[in-house]
Write a structure and sequence with these properties.
The protein has 402 residues and is an all-alpha fold. Among the domains are: 162 residues; 32 residues, no CATH class. The protein is 79% helix and 2% strand. The chain is built from 16 helices and two strands. Helix 2 packs across helix 3, helix 3 packs across helix 9 and helix 8 packs antiparallel against helix 14. The longest helix is centred in the first third of the chain and has 55 residues. It is globular. 19% of the residues are buried.
Length: 402
């Protein structure tokens, strides 16, 4: 190798590494914007599937798109109307009734100890008088010292402490509204011209690989449609069961709001369970604190059933993603991309798996789509690979070793 060739290769390598680093930094810096645009594309793929069903029956595409978008807007408006007002009312009731509720729980505990002497010897004594004495002592400690008490506050200090919190809430609400408007507009543009995303991709693809790229894009689109369809089933399943069990069995008010919120929270795998658990506890505690534990158990059972039946059917069977891979990837996506990373972890992971499988496993490694050797674990923990006749025909090395 001549000095000129060596210099050329080193320069090329350095340039490639530099460009890759710049692109990586650009993706990280623009992650929030790129994920919003990706969200728009995911929504457009799912909604375009619905529009396609309508147009296949002879409906005009513009009318089908208008009906679909109007339906989505109506659903969002109904969800907000159902959830927000009762949620505010229940929190207010809970705050107002909290002192009386706690006293009732303490009295129930004391009665339980009194009525069960054997358990009363084991459980610590804590009567209503003990609670009131403890509560009054805490209040006296808080209000002791300088006269700047709950009834005599430094207004300027209070305002200075509250303004950052109010500013943060206002910033969050403003950002949420702006992102929502942006998502609606971009999704509308993508629905108007569904091919706008794919043309630039084909432009940079060699002619010999155009058909292959279209094939992979169709697989990605089908995976997104399958994910959104499974998500709709999961939301409906969870929302319906929570509404029926919490509302009918436990007779908790505003069970429809809890059902809708529980279903919508299912959009976020794993984390959504805990997000919806908080309002379930708040609504139930505001109605009757005794029902909190049964409500939490019912909610847990519903999510266990959904996780054992619905989610595996979608994530594993349709998207071919092992369930144990989703949570770690979700944590990674959350650390890198924040909230949108959690929300879009499953479709991002599905797309990455398809790209690696199609372009690396099939095209680069040359492993055919029918090549599917099976791993078997022996009783002593040793792993063995087993081939069928088709695998052996495709892999001469395996036949030689066999």
């Amino acid at each position: 190798m001549t000095y000129g060739e060596f210099t050329k290769r080193v320069t090329t390598t350095v340039v490639i590494i530099g460009v890759a680093f710049i692109l990586f930094r650009a993706v990280i810096d623009l992650a929030s914007i790129l994920l919003i645009v990706f969200t728009c594309w995911v929504l457009s793929v799912g909604l375009n599937h619905i529009i396609g069903k309508m147009t296949s029956r002879g409906m005009n595409r513009g009318l089908a798109a208008l009906i679909t978008l109007s339906g989505v807007g109506l659903v969002i408006a109904l969800v907000l109307f159902i959830i927000i007002p009762p949620f505010i009312v229940q929190i207010t009731n809970l705050v107002n009734d909290l002192p009386t509720t706690v006293e009732g729980l303490v009295q129930d505990y004391d009665n339980f100890r009194t009525q069960n002497p054997n358990l009363g010897r084991v459980l610590p004594q804590f009567t209503l008088d003990d609670y009131r004495e403890l509560f009054n002592a805490q209040v006296a400690e808080i209000t002791a010292g300088e006269p700047r008490t709950a009834l005599n506050l430094d207004v300027r200090q209070l305002a200075g402490s509250a303004l950052p919190i109010l500013g943060g809430i206002g910033s969050f609400v403003g950002s949420l509204i702006a992102n929502t408007i942006f998502i609606i507009l971009i999704t509308g543009y993508l629905l108007a011209d569904p091919l706008v995303y794919y043309r630039p991709i084909l432009t940079i693809i060699p002619k010999s690989q155009e058909q292959r790229m279209v094939e992979v894009l169709n697989k990605i689109r089908k995976a997104i449609v399958a994910w959104m369809g499974g998500l709709a089933i999961s939301i409906t399943f969870t929302g319906t069961l929570v509404t029926l069990m919490i509302g009918v069995v436990l007779n908790v008010p505003n069970a429809l709001a809890l059902g809708v919120l529980s279903g919508v929270a299912g959009i976020i795998p794993n984390v959504g369970y805990y997000i919806a658990l908080v309002p379930v506890i708040i609504f139930t505690a505001a109605d009757d604190p005794v029902k909190v534990i049964p409500a939490a158990i019912i909610y847990w059972l519903i999510n266990q059933i959904e996780g054992a039946l619905v989610t595996p059917a979608v994530v594993k069977n349709q998207l071919n993603i092992p369930a144990g891979v989703v949570l770690p990837f979700q944590l990674i996506a959350a650390a890198v991309f924040g909230f949108y990373g959690i929300l879009l972890a499953v479709p991002i992971l599905a797309i990455l798996i398809i790209i690696v499988k199609e372009f690396y496993v099939y095209d680069t490694l040359g492993k055919g789509k029918t090549y599917n050797p099976q791993l078997v674990m022996l009783p002593d923990g040793e792993i063995r690979i087993e081939y069928d006749e088709d695998d052996l025909a495709e892999n001469p090395h395996a036949r030689a070793e066999a």
